Amino acid sequence: MKTLKFALVCASTMLIAPDALARQADAQTYDIAETDLGRALNQVAARSGRQILVADDLVQGLRARRLKGRYAPEAALAALLAGTGLRAVVVGDTLVIRRADAPDQDMAGEEVLVTGTRIRGHGPVGSAVVTIDRAAIDQAGFSTTQQIVQSIPQNFAGGANENTAGLLTAAGNGNAGRGSSVNLRGLGPTSTLLLVNGDRPPLGGFGGTFADLSVIPASVIERVEIVADGSSAIYGSDAVAGVVNVITRRDFDGAESNFRIGTADGDAQEYQLSQLLGTRWASGHAVVAYEFYQRDALAAADRAYATDDLRRFGGPDRRGPYAVPGTIHAGGTSFAIPAGQNGVGLTAAQLTAGTVNLGDRWLGADLLPQQRRHSVFAAISQNVGDTLRIYANGLATWRSFTSAVQPSGDTRRTVPVTNPFYVDPIGTNQPIGVNYSFVRDLGPERDAGQVNAYGLTGGAEARLGPWRVDAHATWGRQDERYAILNRVNSARLALALADPDPATAYNLLGDGATTNRATIESVRGYSRRSFYGMSWSATLRADGPLFTLPAGAVRLAVGAEYRRDRNRDGETISYTATLDPRVTAPTPLPDARIVKAAYAELLIPIFGEGARLPGFRRLDLSAAIRTEDYSDFGSTRNPKIGLVWESLPGVRIRSSYGTSFRAPLFSEMRQDPSSIGYFAFPVADPQSPTGTSNLLVIRGNDPNLRPERATSWTLGVDLTPRFVSGFRFSATYFDVDYRDRIASPAPNLANFLVNRNIYDPILTPNPTPARIAEVYASPYYLDLFGIPQTATFVAEADARLQNLSVVRQSGLDLDIGYAFGIAGGQAEIGAVATHIFHIRQALTATAAAIDVVDTIGNPVDLRVRGRASFEKSGFGAALFVNHVDGYWNRTTAVPQRVASWTTFDLNLSYRFSETSGALAGVRVALNASNLFDRDPPYVTYTVGSYTSGFDAENASPLGRMIALQVTRTW
């Protein structure tokens, strides 16, 4: 009975005074020492669990008085901001810091449009938003945008990244320019949408294969917002795994100078210099910024695990047959050329039959390229009257790179009897073959090139009562040029080998570069290529309230977009097999793609804090739908719904459900002759008496490619319990069903008949004689193996790039934090983590599925980034721990367990007060990433001819990087 009475009293209290209870429940106990205002605001955000948005320059040079006592978040901010000329404005769930004289609906309020929704003042309903703001960027010591984005556990480094150029999983990603992509959930760089200030930049790579983070300078970033949830209903194609929105510092007043120098224990140096200038006037503001960044190349010789000979680690010796000195081949027998001689007077008696000199392909190569970048950013905003704002912003980046790479043209060279260094090991007086490495003659082959990226946005925003209407256009272009230098020109080499003059002939029989230098230079070849991607779009959108319900205003966002994308290949100039440079026509790509889109998003507050229904303190529902029409493959329509339910103060349950898609790339839709091929192929067949059978194979691109499609849903909980001040916890379960993935089964061609249960959907048994004759008569038929038309074929295999595979993934994202006062300062501990339950892949929807999580080339099941920070009186210290769980290497004959990898990052900083004379406004930071210089865990990584002792997709070879950074605000 007492329990019933207590429940009735609680219920009546909720019905009578919900607002008073809400205010009391939101209160937290604060004890914040006098400090910089920016730090104080961060501490309020950490303890209250509320998002607080503020531009750096608004709090620049301002101090916050001590705050001690129990306050609701709004009251805490009011106390901190007293006398600063600033105030806090509630915008949805967000607290936005503005100048006190700015109206609530000022025209500069673009910053309250949060990623994942088109409705201002509200975050995406049902989806979690990861925000990395300027303070977090400085605290972690990040120097590049790719470091910022790739630090989150939801990201997988597989795909287009500067250190994965030699891996099978990076093949075909078109990353000749050594850029860096983002790959949420490990679903592929093409399945994550990158935005800059809410708009799409042009894609990088050949055919537009990925969005390149490396062209965005970190110094101009205000914050990065990440929604790891399907968002095609909001943004269209590519947002299958989620959206990354880089928001720049467009509203800045004053100046900020930054200098950074770092070293990877002397093996590679890093330099960064940036200058930011901004100003405000009564009706607008403008900002301009410049950044220079350079990181030296990291040589493979500086990392013991970058080698083909893995025996010291317990692995295999994968050194190849090309070395210096080389190996002679004659009469089917090999003869290693002895060391310590120059090839002059070498005799057959000095050779031993059946011996081979082995060479390491990593000799002289780099693990990471040298990167050098210049970037310029500018933005301007001008109010015209009280209801119109015009704006523009632009970014230009010029990035160059160079890297010594493993040889791409090793092959056996023929030495004729006319060569003055010729040796006949078997007495037949016939030409001999020599396997020889030219690395010591020409130097290692070298990738070098430049990536130029440009973007410009201009538009106008009008306020029509409570509605905002925005119209803007965006143009962008990314040009890429690259060359492979120090290649062997085989035509020139043949002439030099046939030269009878010992002074000018090429000598392949010595130990070292024993050939005349002019002759060596005569065989130096190269290849060059260029391509570009260009995009321009026009957007018209509006959002505002429709009508008001008891819980609040029903808000609507609508919009229409027009986009034109184009990718083009340039000429290829090759000087590797002919006496003069040969020009190859550009690879034809499809015509420009035109995309027309329209969308609508509705937010309905069903219950608010004034609700009289117990258990429903707040309930919001959102619904969005977007339809897009593509000029090259048709239309698609994608909905999304979201729900947030706050049953008790500090307890929120959210969920989302939606569909997403990815449009085929330009390179995937090619139908030119160079992309089509037919051939006969012998493969292993357990059902054949001989153990092998013949297949008819079709290669190329399916002309009927459809978009990849996915269905995603999430269920999450956010806890900010009022009885544990400063504590917050968030957990999100995610489930992705990804269908019609565009893939080619060709890499597994040899296993088609071994694993018939997997590949049966793409096999047509017993092709008819008429079909066989048709294939052999095709102008695209390639006689690769000399199999006659009269042979028996057990099946025809469709190995084209086509809509095939299915991926089903589920997992859990976690974020936990606790902020508290200690020793007169403020501290926070916490961690973010992603645990993937499974990634089940199948060739088709009906084929057998395998779980690939925790295997080479795929995400591991657990990634964690923990943090602990302390701030007091200008001093700051932050320690981060990064954990990558162990996983399996199943590419070896016996599966190999790869150990987990845990590294620590430390950042120490001190900000001088505004009364420190010449040091006023200076912040000095010392950052150490991978503090204890932990090597990546050993793994026998072998893909084709590529070999290494580490996995570049789950570990960085850079090692300990120590950097000193000095920043001054003016």
Question: How would you describe the overall organization of this protein?
Answer:
The chain is mainly β and 970 residues long. 10% of the residues lie in helices and 46% in strands. A hairpin with a 2-residue loop joins β39 (802-822) and β40. α3 (37-48) packs antiparallel against α5 (73-81).
Task: Write a compact overview of the structure shown.
It is built from 13 helices and 50 strands. It is mainly β.
Describe the protein's topology:
Layout: H1 2-16, H2 18-26, E1 28-32, E2 35-36, H3 37-48, E3 51-53, H4 56-59, E4 63-64, E5 67-71, H5 73-81, E6 86-91, E7 94-99, E8 130-133, H6 134-140, H7 145-150, E9 192-196, E10 221-227, H8 232-235, E11 242-248, E12 254-263, E13 269-281, E14 284-295, E15 298-299, E16 327-330, E17 333-336, E18 366-368, E19 370-384, E20 388-405, E21 413-415, E22 432-435, H9 439-442, E23 445-464, E24 467-488, H10 490-498, H11 517-522, E25 524-549, E26 552-569, E27 572-575, E28 582-584, E29 593-607, E30 618-630, E31 634-648, E32 651-662, E33 677-684, E34 692-699, E35 708-719, E36 727-743, H12 756-759, E37 763-765, H13 769-777, E38 793-798, E39 802-822, E40 825-842, E41 849-851, E42 862-872, E43 875-884, E44 887-889, E45 896-898, E46 901-911, E47 922-929, E48 941-943, E49 946-948, E50 961-969
Helix pairs in contact: 3-5
